[in-house]
Amino acid sequence: MDVRNLDDVPAFVTKDGSQIRELLAYRNSCIRLQSLAEARLVPGAATTPHYHRKTEEIYFILQGVGEMRIGKECRRVRAGDAIAIPPRAVHTIRNTGTQELRFLCCCTPPYEHEDTVLVEQDDAPAPD
Fold it and tell me: In CATH, which superfamily holds the domain spanning 11-118?
């Protein structure tokens, strides 16, 4: 049985600049087709606008408030919100609150640095 406690998982910084703790993925468990991580952004911080060639993501906000941008659409998000991010959709999330923004990232296929493409503008379309 694979059980990981958040306090026991080392943090690392993703290509887009968020600090994550990968709870379950092929790198540390029997899970092969998806990954689950917790991400954190300090007040005022944002991820670099980016997209994933293959990966679809779900963000689930655990704590804090922020602004989520997917393509040209922007929306306030808060604890309890689930956000669908399809492959090739340029996206970024910004912590607009006064406390740390914490959210779960569910990825299928599992997160890989190589699948992350940084872009100059958060509304730039991903190439086909």
Answer: Jelly Rolls (2.60.120.10)
